[in-house]
């Protein structure tokens, strides 16, 4: 599985944030990827492999998404488990009521129908990746006319790219051709080989793939299109409203004390603003 090395951040007394976070979470929050319980008073979170936000490492769910949720659960006194599945399977488990929550997910109207979202956790952006020898400095969708663009689907990213296509058509521009990929890394490999013109991706996820696939000399980020927020989300069939209220209150407490931001920033990522 892919891994992502977090940078060390030192506090004034010389104690690393990593050690403090590890001590805070404790051994109670190290769950195997294939854990399978969900019961009253507990929350089972499922997610996809989505480095650098969340990923599998040493048979554990790891990354800032997991660390953040585990810290919130500890603050709220809630037992939480964490599993990684393919994206379709994770959504299926949620809709069947076999999982309670998801981590590091984007928000859109269709998901609002069956997911109750937490306050935002991460801020990032969607943007365009091109080959390194492409001179494009992306700033306007008109620059994408006639391009064949890869995107991971089904995903919120794909929904946004479809919106771009619809907007281009509405403006009378030559449309783009969307190539949906079942995994996001394969689109970057096709781009590096010159088989597509661009990839539309989360900026931080895309940069991690480029590094992990050894494509830094072949693929580059051409510019951002839209800022986005990532959340935790809970199935609307989850009946324990008190538990969810405790989760949200704990998140806000951690954010107000700066602890949530510290976890996220220790991985070189950007925390969302508390709304």
Task: Describe, in plain words, how this protein is organized in 3D.
Helices cover 33% and strands 25% of the residues. Helix 5 links the parallel strand 8 and strand 9 (177-181). The chain is built from 9 helices and 12 strands. With 275 residues, the protein is α/β, with parallel strands linked by helices. Helix 2 crosses helix 8 (241-256). The chain folds into 2 domains: 17-123 and 229-271, D-Maltodextrin-Binding Protein, domain 2, CATH 3.40.190.10; 125-227, Periplasmic binding protein-like II (D-Maltodextrin-Binding Protein, domain 2). Strands 1, 4, 5, 6, 7, 8, 9, 10, 11 and 12 form a 10-stranded mixed sheet that branches. A two-stranded antiparallel sheet has the order 2-3.
Question: CATH architecture of the largest domain, please?
Answer: 3-Layer(aba) Sandwich
**Binned strand content:** 25-35%
Distance between the termini: 34 Å
Shape: globular
Major beta-sheet overview: 10 strands, mixed
Mean pLDDT: 87
**CATH class designation of the largest domain:** Alpha Beta
**Would you tell me which CATH topology of the largest domain applies?**
D-Maltodextrin-Binding Protein, domain 2
Low-confidence stretches: 1-38
CATH superfamily of the largest domain: Periplasmic binding protein-like II
Number of E strands: 12
Work out the radius of gyration.
Answer: 19 Å
The helical percent reads 25-40%
């Amino acid at each position: 599985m892919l891994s992502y090395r977090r940078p060390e951040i030192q506090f004034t007394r010389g104690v690393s944030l990593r050690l403090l976070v590890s001590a805070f979470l404790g051994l109670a929050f190290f769950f195997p990827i294939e854990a399978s319980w969900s019961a009253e008073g507990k929350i089972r979170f499922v997610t996809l492999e989505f480095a650098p936000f969340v990923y599998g490492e040493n048979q554990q769910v790891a990354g800032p998404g997991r660390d953040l949720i585990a810290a919130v659960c500890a603050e709220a006194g809630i037992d939480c488990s964490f599993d990684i599945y393919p994206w379709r399977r994770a959504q299926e488990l949620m809709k069947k009521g076999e999982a309670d929550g998801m981590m590091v997910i984007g928000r859109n109207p269709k998901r609002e129908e069956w997911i109750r979202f937490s306050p935002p956790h991460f801020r990032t952006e969607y943007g365009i990746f091109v080959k390194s020898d492409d001179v494009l400095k992306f700033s306007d969708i008109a620059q994408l006319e006639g391009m064949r663009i890869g995107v991971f689907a089904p995903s919120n990213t794909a929904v946004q790219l479809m919106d771009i296509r619809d907007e281009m058509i509405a403006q009378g521009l030559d449309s783009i051709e969307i190539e949906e990929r079942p995994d996001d890394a394969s689109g970057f490999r096709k781009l590096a080989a010159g088989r597509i013109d661009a990839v539309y991706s989360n900026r931080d996820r895309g940069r991690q793939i480029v590094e992990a696939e050894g494509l830094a000399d072949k693929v580059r980020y051409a510019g951002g299109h839209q800022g986005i927020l990532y959340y935790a989300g809970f199935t609307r069939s989850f009946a324990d409203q008190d538990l969810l209220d405790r989760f949200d209150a704990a998140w806000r407490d951690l954010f107000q004390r700066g602890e949530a931001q510290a976890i996220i920033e220790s991985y070189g990522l950007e925390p969302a603003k508390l709304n």
